[in-house]
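User: Some background: our group keeps a shared notebook of sequences we're curious about, and every so often someone picks one and asks for a predicted structure to add to the entry. Today it's my turn. The entry only has the sequence so far, pasted here. Could you supply the structure so I can complete it?
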Amino acid sequence: MSQLVFAARNRIKTGSGEARRIRHSGRIPAIIYGRTGTALPIDLDALEFTNGVKGISESTIVKIDIDGSIHEAFVKDTQRRIMDGAVLHVDFYEVESNTSLRAKVSVHIHGNPIGVREGGILEIPLHDVEVECLPKDLPERIDVDVSDLRVNQSIHVRDLPPGEGLRYITGGDQVVALVKFAKAEAAASSEEEAAAQAAEAKS
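Assistant: Of course. Here's the predicted structure to add to the notebook entry:
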């Protein structure tokens, strides 16, 4: 997937009145926040931004072209109108190519576990993990194949594939995916075990 590039303009005037004027002209007011607390007001084409950000994740780095000056950033927040979902304002967080960053990356589960085919249930308690790396090493997502999971087996953060220059901040003991017995089977197993214990007590 090629990196998204949004053409933007410097925004000289600020305030609610100016923001309304920008929206009426088919553009979106936005701000690029820097690591040192700087804030650069800009505006973007509303249609280009709305179509461009469909399907991107919190860990996707986009380029913002302001009259030939390129800024790389995350889309940190979008304010939307409740009635129709139209984007009213965007906050970007700028990254620096030679400075490590922390970000949440989504975990993509795929495969049909052996344990599920044997009657178990796949549970996915963790949907994203926090990582630290340089911007160039940041993955858009982390793919996890659960095909080999059997009942009562699990995959932890420590089992995730190591990426080039990638360090996991989320604790290694946290469970990403596991296969458990279906509740009905577990209940039946417990009843059988209780019956067996009662029979042993009587003998």
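Suggested note for the entry: Helices lie at 16-24, 46-52, 114-117, 183-202. The first strand starts at residue 5 and ends at 10.
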